[in-house]
Structures are given as structure tokens and as C-alpha cells.
Design goal:
The protein has 425 residues and is an alpha/beta fold. The protein has 15 helices and 14 strands. It starts with 10 loop residues before the first helix and ends in a 45-residue tail after the last helix. It comes from Nocardiopsis aegyptia.
Length: 425
């Protein structure tokens, strides 16, 4: 299929696609849309940034056209693991939903629950939600799933990895049998087998990436650094011309690094699960506009964030899982663009990083660098920061956290992890 016009899909959706400049479906869209539009259960895997949202979204909206939603009773549900991904799904589908008269709403934690309940009482066709907040609304009686005809799990593997399996299972059990189920993810492994066997009926399986390796337009660099140089190197990279997302393991490490960069003249802002949703939304908007040039984040930013023209992602702390590496890196080199992923690796992390790259089926360029190495500037655009303190951009202020561990301390160089906590919705 080389054109959206070839699909059995409502004309308003085709016209909206044309207005958005989309005429040819991506590989995952071409593979799954004919089956999804025909009402089949679908199990799909494709790399991040490849168009999965429209792959399931267009099929949902085509079915919802001309239907009537009763108060508190949506007709379709999309579950996503993070607030950012849920909001991005809703935003991406908004022009298409309006073209066919479909009302959609986002239901996530960190936002006033009474407003979300009010939207549901007004009647919506499609709910895009994180599992925990949707469960809260169901328990309050503000959302009833007895009329849901289509359900989608987006990034199902991350939902299981984050401990959302009980909530997801409980939600799917309340959806009437016989409806359509679609499960999409950048990676599929045995963690989602239980969901597939239990809730999908004879699914059509499409895996358009033969390996889990990242896209060919993405360069991978592993930089061996000393503990003494690590913070200075990260600071110089953050001071580059252009935007960068930098990942650390813990919220405390993120906050401390953001403060350090601001004190050195870099427009930086933190993004992690400890911030309110309005703060997180403002920070992302500022980063997309360029008011913030260095986004310092935990894995909460590893999925569901799309920024046009982002050409560099830096792992200040190497991820522990190859899937996390792929999803962090997937913030760049999207939709055919080029980009680089740089990982700073201490001596005691080299063996683990080699194993991780092997599992990800990636052969990185490996080099040892110090602060003054010209290769550092060539690969990342690193430069000396101005050293002139700057303020947190307007609207991105946050409470200071006391007792933060120093940058580069802790078992993996980014602050102690502390006890495991229940996943944030």
C-alpha cells in the first residue's frame, strides 16, 4: 500500500492526512491499518518514531465516526505508561478526531481529577489514559467501561516493566468481550505474553523491524571518561549550540545537575516524576520552543516525547536495560532525521555497557575522552559554558529538594537510588 487513499477509511480522515502533509503511510501503518480497519485484533512492533500512533489511531477514529457517547461511558480506550505519552497521543490524534466529530480526552495522574471526571460526564468517545488514574476514576464511578468496543495498549512492554500489569489487567477485564484489541510497542518480549494470550483474539502480528537495533540514521558513541571529568564533560555538552536531552538515573541527580548547569550559564530544566504535571508540561513546551536548551531527565522522558530537530541524546548515567537505551535514543533520529546518542561510561561500567550494546544489536563508536579532547567537541558540539548564572525559565520554577546527593556519587554515579517505590501514575 503506497497511499492512504487506498484504505477503506472515512474521507474526512484522508483529507486531514493530506492537510498534514501525509500521503504515504509508514511501514507499520501500511502493515497494520488494513487489518485494524477491518476490525481484527493487532499485535504490532516498530521502532520509536515510526508512526504507531496513527497506525492505531486512524482505525479507532474510523470506527467512532457517527457514534454517540453517553456520559461516563467511552467507546474506546488507549492505555499508555506515562503522562507524556498519553498527552502526545491525544495531541497527535486531535485534528483527525475533530474531522470526524469524535471527542477525546486525556486521563493522567498529576492533574486535577475533578476536571477529568467532568469531561467524562459530558460524554467522550475516546479516553487516552495512564492505568492508575483510569482505575481511580472507575472506582469513583466517573468512568464505566461497559460500552468500550476498542482498546489499545501503547508501549505495553513498558507498562509491564513499570509494574502496571495489575491495573492494566483489571481495566481490560471490565471491557466487554468481543471488541477489538490492539497492542503496539517498540519492543515486544515475554513480559507481554500474558496480556496477548488472555485478551487478544487471534491477533494479526506485524513486526516491521527485523532486529531491535536502532535506526540507521542514528550514530552511537560510547565515551570512556574518568569520574573526575564526568561532570565537566556533561556540562560542556549541555552548553552546546542547540538542544540536548540528558538522562540520569534519579530525581535527585536530575535536580542537582539542572541546578549546576543553571549556575554555569546553561538554560537547563529538570523533568522527572517528582514534578507536577503542569510543571512537566511547561518544561516540555519550553524545551520545544528553545527557551530551555538542555532537558535533564529521568526515564520518564524516554518515551512519548517528540521534539522536531533534536539531534543529540546523552546518557550521563548509562541505562541498565537495552530497551531503555533504545527508547532514550529514540528521542532523536525520528522520522528519517539523523541524530547521535552519546553515553558517558566510567571504568567500572564498561563491561555492563558492552553487554547492553550487544543485546541492543548496536556496534557503537568507542573512544576515551577528557575535557579538552577535540573529539568531544566534534561529536557533541561541546563548548565551554559562559559561567554566568541564569535563572530557571519563567514558569519552570520548582521547589528545591534538600539532602540531594552530590552529582556523580552513589553506586552508579548519579546519587543513591533509595528504596523502590510504587510507580507514579
Amino acid at each position: 500500500m503506497d497511499s492512504f487513499d487506498a484504505l477503506d477509511m472515512p474521507e474526512p480522515l484522508k483529507r486531514t492526512l493530506a492537510r498534514q502533509g501525509l500521503t504515504t503511510p509508514s511501514e507499520i501503518q501500511a502493515a497494520t491499518l488494513p487489518n485494524a480497519l477491518a476490525g481484527r485484533d493487532v499485535l504490532g512492533r516498530s521502532r520509536t518514531g515510526s508512526g504507531k500512533t496513527l497506525a492505531f489511531g486512524l482505525a479507532l477514529l474510523a470506527k467512532l465516526q457517527g457514534t454517540t457517547a453517553e456520559p461516563r461511558r467511552p467507546l474506546a480506550v488507549v492505555l499508555a505508561p506515562t503522562r507524556e505519552l498519553a498527552q502526545q497521543v491525544t495531541e497527535s490524534l486531535d485534528p483527525y478526531a475533530r474531522s470526524v466529530g469524535v471527542r477525546a480526552t486525556t486521563v493522567v495522574g498529576g492533574m486535577p481529577i475533578h476536571r477529568q471526571a467532568r469531561n467524562l460526564r459530558q460524554g467522550v468517545h475516546l479516553v487516552v489514559a495512564t492505568p492508575g488514574r483510569l482505575r481511580d476514576l472507575i472506582e469513583r464511578g466517573d468512568c464505566v467501561l461497559d460500552q468500550v468496543e476498542s482498546a489499545v495498549l501503547d508501549e505495553a512492554d513498558q507498562m509491564t516493566d513499570m509494574g502496571f500489569m495489575p491495573q492494566v489487567t483489571a481495566i481490560l477485564q471490565q471491557i466487554p468481550a468481543g471488541g477489538r484489541r490492539m497492542l503496539f510497542s517498540a519492543t515486544l518480549d515475554r513480559n507481554v505474553d500474558t496480556l496477548v494470550r488472555r485478551f487478544l483474539n487471534d491477533p494479526v502480528v506485524h513486526s516491521v523491524d527485523l532486529s531491535e537495533g536502532a535506526v540507521s540514521t542514528m550514530e552511537h558513541h560510547v565515551m570512556h571518561v574518568t569520574h573526575m571529568d564526568k561532570q565537566d564533560i556533561a556540562t560542556r555538552i549541555a552548553a552546546r549550540e542547540g538542544r540536548v536531552i540528558m538522562f540520569l538515573d534519579t530525581k535527585r541527580a536530575v535536580d542537582r545537575m539542572a541546578d549546576h548547569l543553571l549556575a554555569n550559564g546553561v538554560l537547563a530544566a529538570p523533568l522527572h516524576g517528582g514534578r507536577s504535571q503542569p510543571q512537566r508540561t511547561r518544561t516540555l513546551d519550553q524545551f520545544k520552543r528553545g527557551d530551555v536548551t538542555a532537558l535533564i531527565a529521568t526515564n520518564v522522558a524516554a518515551r512519548g516525547i517528540h521534539v522536531d530537530g533534536l539531534d543529540l541524546v546523552v546518557n550521563i548515567d548509562p541505562p541498565t536495560d537495552h530497551k531503555d537505551y533504545l527508547h532514550r535514543g529514540g528521542r532523536t533520529a525520528r522520522a528519517g532525521e539523523s541524530g547521535s546518542v552519546v553515553t558517558l561510561v566510567l571504568h567500572n561500567q564498561r563491561r555492563d555497557m558492552t553487554r547492553l550494546m550487544s543485546r541492543a544489536r548496536i556496534e557503537p563508536q568507542t573512544l576515551r575522552v577528557d575535557v579538552a579532547d577535540p573529539e568531544l567537541a566534534r561529536v557533541t558540539g561541546a563548548r565551554e559554558p559562559s559561567g554566568v548564572p541564569v535563572s530557571v525559565p519563567s514558569g519552570a520554577s520548582r521547589e528545591r529538594r534538600h539532602g540531594s546527593a552530590p552529582f556523580g556519587s552513589g553506586p552508579r554515579g548519579s546519587g543513591s537510588r533509595g528504596p523502590r517505590r510504587r510507580p507514579r501514575r
